[in-house]
Design brief:
The structure holds two protein chains of two kinds. By secondary structure, chain A is α+β, with helices and mostly antiparallel strands. Chain A has three domains: 57 residues, 2-Layer Sandwich (Uridine Diphospho-n-acetylenolpyruvylglucosamine Reductase, domain 2); 115 residues, Uridine Diphospho-n-acetylenolpyruvylglucosamine Reductase, domain 3 (2-Layer Sandwich), CATH 3.30.465; 109 residues, CO dehydrogenase flavoprotein, C-terminal domain (Enolase-like, domain 1). Chain A is built from 13 helices and twelve strands. Chain B is α+β, with helices and mostly antiparallel strands. Chain B has twelve helices and 20 strands. Chain B has a four-stranded mixed β-sheet with strand order 6-14-15-18, with helices on both faces. Classes of the chains: A alpha+beta, B alpha+beta. Chains A and B meet through helix 8 and helix 13 of A and strand 17 and helix 11 of B.
Chain lengths: 329, 518
């Protein structure tokens, strides 16, 4: 049986208290929300915080509010609540859909929006027990110096496995971060970096407080997830597709891929292939082709990597077909 | 697996040559027995007049392994049933029809000297063919949808014990107390399969009691006689037969004294509804408790014993490995799987499986149906996703040593199951009962593989049938290459000289014992 190591648990009541607790704890401290990612990882000694600071008692981090400038969702909103929220379902169906596709009902009840957006990157050389990792010698993401999936690589290739993050990037959400130095707002795309270890451009002391969704006017978005089973599994490919409509013409478009890089990967060429055009079969095929080329899955998730790459084309096409059909209704 | 079969135009098999090679890991474990099992049971479904088997097990740098459900038979059965599907297509025959025409006859001895008692496979095939609408659907569904059929058989308990000795495989002791209670003591182990219920139901049936009035004490070496264990699909048959013997001995004792009280001979005494009565006039009766009291007053406490040893197999001593395969009785299953295959992804979904299982006699229907449905679930996982991959370049560590990454179907992947229980009682089974714990798993994987072929015209000749394999085969098909994914050759192995044993119908010495043969 894998057991949690011992640690000090803190339950601050406000963001300010939490940041102060984290400052006290220093590099040995970590924030936790639902714990569905951190605790299993701690059992396998991926993260070894001496102080765990729970954000679950902080009222400021809850709630979902429609404003003129869009919707503001507290980072502690559970994935279950997010997926079931009437306004989110109606106006941000891609967000609700992505949240609904995360893991299992039990884990969605505990897991939070903020947690999914900050999900640790995954790799099947890394998400193993301490003993297994030790047996083959540790990798650079934890305790070692090499990337086993790409041994000559200077960087870690663990995979961004969030379902909501690609959608947040595609629709142009913004994140409010609060840290010891005050608060800042960053566009979703800027939170992520294509590095399996330093995958977040967030200082460890900063708390993701809220997610600001843009006003739901004139655009539409969908999310498609590829995984082995209809429940439980992390995405081996996620496709978030966003279009801003000008009548029946695509004024702007973004295609963002999950599960194929260490960050949600926007494919600008795919968006460009659609811009100023009707969503015709040819344009959809061109966008799918553009998305296929930069998708470079490695052999560190479920399924064969070449098949996963081929699926990019199929899933981007499926997402764009869905957007077109919705426009047609 | 490698299989070569001679067939006539009508699908009759003239001979079969079967080879298997097992990756056994670094330890011996059950290796020899498992290897023999991959060759044993091919012969008990369709008549095979001549049969040759070569099996080998390789030591590799992998962890220890052992048999699971179906011990060494899911692999050859997959090969055989997919192979038959290909033969049927080449001959222009319906695969269901081909199988129905050439079933092993009941009460016969196979080429490798396995004695088959009852065989309900024909009824199993007819059930799933009718239930699934096979004739209207096979080779008639639109591209991307298909149905596939496969059959199987499994032994009801190994004929030889895991611990070689001359003692019984199962023992039962039975105690009747003067209050009318009956307690049955047996070493058999209830692992959720229902063995306790089988003991209670069988004893109750013989003594005319309600099963809830029978107390079961099981699997306690302080209290119970030995039963060899819950493996090999042996418990219902072996402890069941031992329980019948013990219960019948108790019944004989009680019948004598009850008969004296009722003024009739013991043979006229019947046990039913908790009463002991005169068969000629059931209104003349005493309670079961009274019967026990009479017996106890006359001869002391009433306790009996029963035990069971399987019959000696005609295969015994004839060839190396002849100890593997013989069984008192063989169960039979047939399944039709319905699949939907997405041609652009290769993803296979299974909406429904129809499965019929010849359990001989169904003693506990809920338990039997549970075993069948559970088998379908397990079979789906084996067919579509479960796999033990290793990192060849990283000291051969297991690639996915966790239940998050070792994929089994969730409720979302589980198909609808239509179950048919077929009962062809076997003379060797308790009330005719045969096994249900392992056999129903076996047809599921080949049925899915055959259905994939019906759906998109490609063969995936290995499990799991993953989307990448289906897609690769579809691409080969599109390029005009053989539409297949799977092993392309069988390794060269320095086989020893084969042992030649004439089949029963060619061996003068055994002509007399092989009762009905072709």
């Amino acid at each position: 049986m894998l057991r949690l190591p011992s640690f000090t648990y803190r339950q601050p009541r406000s963001v300010r208290e939490a940041v102060a607790a984290k400052t006290d704890a220093g590099a040995d401290g970590m924030y936790v929300a639902g714990g569905t990612d951190l605790y299993p990882n701690m059992k396998r000694r991926h993260q070894e915080p001496r102080t765990v600071i729970s954000l679950m008692g902080i009222r400021e981090l809850t709630g979902c509010e429609m404003r003129d400038a869009g919707c503001v969702v507290g980072a502690n909103t559970s994935l279950t609540d997010l997926a079931a929220h009437p306004a989110i379902r109606r106006k941000y169906s891609a967000v609700a859909h992505a949240a609904e596709l995360v893991s299992t009902p039990l884990l969605r009840n505990m897991g939070t929006l903020g947690g999914n957006l900050c999900l640790d990157t995954r790799c099947n050389y890394y998400n193993q027990t301490y003993e297994w990792r030790k047996a083959i010698d540790f990798c650079m993401k934890k305790d070692g110096a090499i990337c086993w999936v790409a041994p000559s690589s200077p960087r870690c290739w663990a995979v961004s496995s969030s379902d909501v993050a690609p959608v947040a990037v595609a629709i142009g959400a913004e994140f409010l971060l609060v840290g010891p130095g005050g608060e800042r707002v960053v566009p979703a795309a800027r939170l992520y970096q294509n590095d399996g270890i330093n995958y977040l451009a967030k200082h460890p002391d900063e708390i993701l407080v809220e997610v600001r969704l843009p006003p739901p006017d004139g655009w539409d978005a969908v999310y498609r997830k590829l995984r082995r089973r209809g429940s439980f599994d992390f995405p081996v490919l996620g496709v978030a597709a966003w279009v801003r409509w000008d009548g029946d013409v695509v004024a702007d478009a973004r295609i963002v891929l999950g599960g194929v890089a260490s960050q949600p990967l926007e494919v600008p060429e795919a968006g460009a292939a659609l811009r100023g055009e009707h969503l015709s079969d040819e344009r959809i095929a061109a966008a799918a082709e553009s998305a296929y080329r930069p998708a470079k899955p490695l052999d560190n998730t479920d399924f064969d990597l070449s098949w996963r790459k081929q699926m990019t084309r199929v899933y981007v096409k499926g997402a764009l077909d869905e957007l077109r059909n919705r426009r047609g209704r | 697996m490698w299989v070569k079969t001679g067939v006539k135009r009508d699908g009759a098999i003239t001979a079969m040559h079967f080879r298997s090679l097992l990756d056994g890991g670094a330890y011996g474990s059950y290796g020899v027995a498992s290897t023999y099992y991959t060759g044993a049971l091919q012969t008990v479904t369709y008549h095979i007049p001549r049969y040759k088997f070569q099996g080998a097990r390789a030591f590799t740098n992998k962890p220890p392994c052992g048999p699971k459900r179906g011990h060494g038979t899911p692999q050859p059965r997959f090969a055989l049933e997919v192979h038959l599907d290909k033969i049927a297509e080449q001959l222009g025959l319906d695969p269901a029809e081909l199988r129905l025409r050439h079933l092993v006859p009941p009460d016969s001895v196979t080429a490798n000297y396995l004695r088959v008692g009852s065989i309900g496979l024909g009824d199993c095939i007819r059930k799933v063919v009718d239930g699934s609408g096979w004739k209207d659907r096979f080779r008639k569904l639109p591209f991307g949808q298909g149905v596939g059929l496969a059959c199987s058989s499994y032994l009801t308990g190994a004929g030889l014990p895991v611990y070689w000795n001359d003692m019984p495989h199962s023992g039962v002791q039975l105690k009747c107390d003067r209050g009318g209670g009956v307690t049955v003591f047996c070493g058999s182990t209830e692992i959720g399969q229902g063995s306790d219920s089988v003991l209670a139901i069988i004893v109750a049936e013989v003594l005319g009691l309600d099963p809830f009035d029978v107390a079961v004490v099981a699997a306690d070496t302080d209290l119970t006689p030995v039963d060899l264990g819950s493996y090999s699909s042996r418990v219902t048959l072996m402890t069941g037969n031992a329980a019948i013997q013990a219960a019948e001995r108790a019944r004989d004792i009680l019948a004598r004294y009850a008969g004296e009280r009722l003024g009739v001979s013991a043979v006229r005494v019947r046990f039913a509804d908790g009463r002991v009565c005169d068969a000629a006039d059931p209104t003349r009766a005493i309670s079961f408790a009274e019967a026990v009291q009479l017996a106890e007053a006359a001869q002391g406490t009433v306790g009996t014993m029963g035990s069971y040893t399987p019959p000696r197999s005609p295969a015994s001593g004839r060839y190396r490995g002849a100890g593997v395969g013989p069984s008192p009785a063989y169960s039979y299953s047939a399944a039709v799987a319905e699949v939907v295959v997405e041609p652009d992804t290769g993803i296979v979904r299974v909406p429904r499986i129809w499965i019929a299982h010849d359990v001989g006699r169904c003693i506990n229907a809920a338990a039997v149906i549970g075993q069948i449905e559970g088998s379908v679930y397990m079979g789906l996982g084996e067919a579509l996703m479960e796999e033990m991959p290793y990192r060849a370049n990283r000291h051969v560590v297991h690639k996915v040593p966790s239940l998050l990454e070792y994929k089994s179907p969730t409720t979302l992947e589980m198909c609808d199951v239509v179950t048919y229980i077929v009962e062809h009682p076997d003379p060797n089974g308790p009330f005719g009962a045969k096994e249900a714990g392992q056999g129903p798993l076996l047809p599921v994987m080949p049925a899915v593989a055959n259905a994939v072929y019906d759906a998109v015209g490609v063969r995936v000749d290995e499990v799991p049938i993953t989307p990448e394999k289906v897609l690769k085969a579809l691409k080969r098909k599109a390029k005009g290459e053989p539409p297949r994914y799977g092993p392309t050759s069988f390794p060269a192995i320095p086989w020893p000289e084969p042992t030649y044993v004439p089949p029963p119908w060619e061996d003068v010495d055994t002509m007399a014992t092989a009762s009905r043969h072709r």
